[in-house]
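User: Here's a protein and a ligand (NAP). What would the complex look like?
Assistant: Let me lay out the input and then the predicted complex.
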Amino acid sequence: MNTNIAILGGGNIGSAMAEGFLEAPGTDPSRITVTRRRIEKLQALADKGISVTTDNVAAVRGASLVILTVRPGQVRSLLQEIAPALEPARHLLVSVVTNFSIAEIEGFTGGEMAVVRAMPNTAVAVRESMTGLAANGPGQERIDEVQELFDLLGRTYIMEEKLMAAATILNACGIAYFLRVIRAISQGGIQIGFHASEAQTIAAQVAKGAAELLLASGIHPEEEIDKVTTPRGVTIAGLNEMEHHGLSSALIKGILASYNEIEKLK
Ligand SMILES: NC(=O)c1ccc[n+]([C@@H]2O[C@H](COP(=O)([O-])OP(=O)(O)OC[C@H]3O[C@@H](n4cnc5c(N)ncnc54)[C@H](OP(=O)(O)O)[C@@H]3O)[C@@H](O)[C@H]2O)c1
């Protein structure tokens, strides 16, 4: 990383991103500034050499890449505050804020500012996020810089902004869905004999293995499932029982329920 970064709003995702950058090889912590109003909550990052401040404008002046990580209801006042310090020739503005469009951001910054919306998840902290990126016109020319940065925190993809709500559900909420599935499998594991901590580690590693199989090969999950399901066997008995109780349907309906809520986030 050879650019100065300001992360404005060091809450869950902003702090997790800072943690992830710290883990990336060659990161100089002094190049990262994180802001929030209750600055005492950033002490752990400060202890690791990251600059922390309540002064958003000073953070913007000291950086060339500015990342907004506040809640949707907080972003207008933050943009109002920093807009005079943003220079289109120098700054690249990245917004992680849900349901706040590029057009709405340009309402504060003007259309010349390079703007990229990014939708990561909290696995940025362990550099295993999946982050979707969408840019405005000037942002398209600099999207490589943003992609390089988020590639330090996991995998990335570029999309049209109209898919950002869907990306919010799959990327950001998706972490919670999988965590709940891992928890449920751990609980099943306890009932059949493992201690809670063993069951959790087993479930998490098996989930990671399943994900790695698909990421490595790109094949359809059912092809891998076919390798595990012998005729009249135990796996297919369990899977079919789960489906009788609506496993796939529950997940799909949950994704739609989350998606239908997203417009309320303003
Ligand atoms: N959490 C996720 O997994 C995730 C994933 C993708 C995207 N997002 C999006 O990222 C945004 C942040 O989510 P979050 O879960 O991290 O929320 P959060 O924990 O509430 O973080 C927001 C932070 O912004 C700080 N803040 C608010 N106004 C500020 C200001 N004017 N100047 C400086 N700091 C300010 C708040 O701290 P103070 O009150 O101390 O200032 C707070 O810690 C949301 O738009 C969310 O939709 C979240």
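Summary: The chain has two domains: 5-159, 168-264.
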